[in-house]
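Input (structure):
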């Protein structure tokens, strides 16, 4: 049979169209299959992620409850121990930070993040964090140093390089708090405290009260000494332990300066000094002892 070239060409075009139709159908089927698999995987992943989130939330709630309960129990243990209140407070903060860090690792584990990976990341980022939080880390190191050296305790009255003075009310991880006599709260970074000169006024059980008294050159020193000794003996806030002393400290331009020294309990220092000053003034006035003061005489012609 002889076929014309036209018939052969039409047959080839028909076969090509059929092949193209088959390819389009296969591609469409493949695309549908991929989309179906994607949706199925998305559903599975969403369900798995939701379960992980729920478990993580339960871990957080339970962990916070356990940490708080442990904190209360740990505080009772510290209160019964002989540890200083300030050190106990700082130790409690360190333990809480450590427990919350462990809780964070447990939550991260619910999302497939291993603890070793977290520690490795923190280790690699340590230099960067150290530079970024240099001041904070220095304050933390200062807090640790305060625990070791114990220059002061909770309730002590301290002075920092003649800048701040007050009663220590808190020794924290990063900073400490002072309460001044006029009821102001001063917050000082621990790094600054560790590197400063600290005067602790309440580290000893007793403290020396000093009072300088100026008398006129015409007064009898021995008589004035007897009057001052009587004042000291009658002062209830001063210690009657035989350590009180009265002597001539200097001879200034207009007066003889006598120095009164006596010990009192540290807690009574300010009250004792104020009361002694008032009692000395009244006793000298009563006995007619001259207390010189600066004055200017103007002579007019």
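Output (sequence):
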């Amino acid at each position: 049979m002889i076929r014309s070239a036209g018939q052969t060409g039409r047959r080839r075009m028909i076969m090509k169209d059929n092949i193209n139709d088959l390819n389009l159908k296969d591609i469409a089927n493949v695309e549908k299959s991929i989309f179906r698999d994607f949706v199925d995987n998305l559903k599975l992943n969403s369900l798995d992620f939701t379960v992980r989130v729920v478990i993580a939330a339960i871990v957080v709630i339970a962990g916070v409850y356990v940490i708080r309960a442990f904190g209360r129990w740990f505080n009772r243990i510290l209160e019964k121990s002989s540890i200083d209140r300030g050190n106990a407070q700082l130790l409690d903060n360190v333990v809480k930070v450590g427990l919350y860090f462990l809780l964070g690792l447990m939550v991260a584990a619910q999302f497939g993040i291993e603890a070793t990976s977290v520690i490795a990341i923190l280790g690699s980022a340590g230099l960067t964090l150290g530079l970024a939080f240099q001041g904070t880390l220095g304050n933390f190191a200062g807090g640790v140093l305060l625990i070791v050296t114990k220059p002061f305790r909770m309730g002590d009255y301290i002075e920092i390089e003649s800048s701040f003075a007050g009663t220590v009310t808190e020794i924290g991880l990063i900073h400490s708090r002072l309460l001044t006599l006029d009821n102001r709260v001063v917050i000082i970074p621990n790094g600054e405290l560790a590197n400063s000169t600290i005067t602790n006024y309440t580290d000893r059980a007793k403290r020396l009260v000093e009072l300088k008294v100026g008398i006129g050159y015409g007064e009898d020193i021995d008589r004035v000494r007897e009057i001052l000794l009587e004042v000291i003996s009658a002062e209830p806030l001063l210690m009657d332990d035989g350590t009180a002393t009265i002597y001539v400290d200097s001879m200034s331009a207009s007066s003889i300066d006598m120095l009164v020294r006596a010990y009192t309990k540290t807690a009574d220092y300010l009250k004792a000094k104020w009361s002694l000053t008032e009692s000395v003034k009244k006793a000298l006035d009563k006995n007619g002892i001259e207390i010189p003061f600066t004055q200017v005489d103007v002579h007019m012609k």
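Notes: The chain has eight helices and eight strands. The domain at 206-286 is CATH 3.30.70.100 (Alpha-Beta Plaits).
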